[in-house]
Amino acid sequence: MRSHKPPAIHDPEKVRYYRTHKWPSDIARQREQINIIEGVLRERETVTKNDAALAVLEEVLWAARRAAEKAKDDQGQFASGLQAAYYDVLSVAFEQAGLFDLDPADFGMQDFNPDSMLSPRKAA
Question: Given a cut of 70, is residue 2 above it in pLDDT?
């Protein structure tokens, strides 16, 4: 089996053409492709960080919801203040989500409305 070898370039005009026209444009095109690929990779890192941030925020919202529901069952001024603080946190999160057209289901809160925390407290 014969191996294929590229033809040798002996013509000085062809060598000059490759060095001055062909290869510089090839190199420029390859550099542009490298820049594009690097940009895509940087975007992926950003998306990954955004996804992580969303996961953290979702956990914070769930922790606030659980604590607010527990405070609603407790009596006293401290529990009442705690419930109000959690209401503030959760209502701001829902308002901000609305500004960005996010559905509460996007962060696991589809069945929750912060305003439900404003209902009268249970009597002991």
Answer: no
pLDDT digits (tens, 9 = 90+) for 55-87: 888 888 889 888 888 888 888 888 888 888 888
Q: What is the pLDDT of residue 78?
A: 85
Distance CA 88, CA 70 (A): 16
Expressed in angstroms, the distance from the first to the final Cα of the chain is 93
- Where along the chain do its domains lie? 12-118
Structure-token pair, residue 30: 């390859």
46 neighbors 96 (Cβ within 8 angstroms): no
Token pair 């062909």 in the structure block, residue: 22
Tokens of 47: 């998306």
Amino acid identity, position 96: Q
**Dist CA 94 CA 96 (whole Å):** 5
Q: What number of other Cβ atoms are within 10 A of residue 79's Cβ?
A: 15
Neighbouring C-beta atoms of residue 68, cutoff 10 Å: 21
What is the number of other CB atoms lying within 10 angstroms of the CB of residue 63? Answer: 12
Global pTM?
0.55
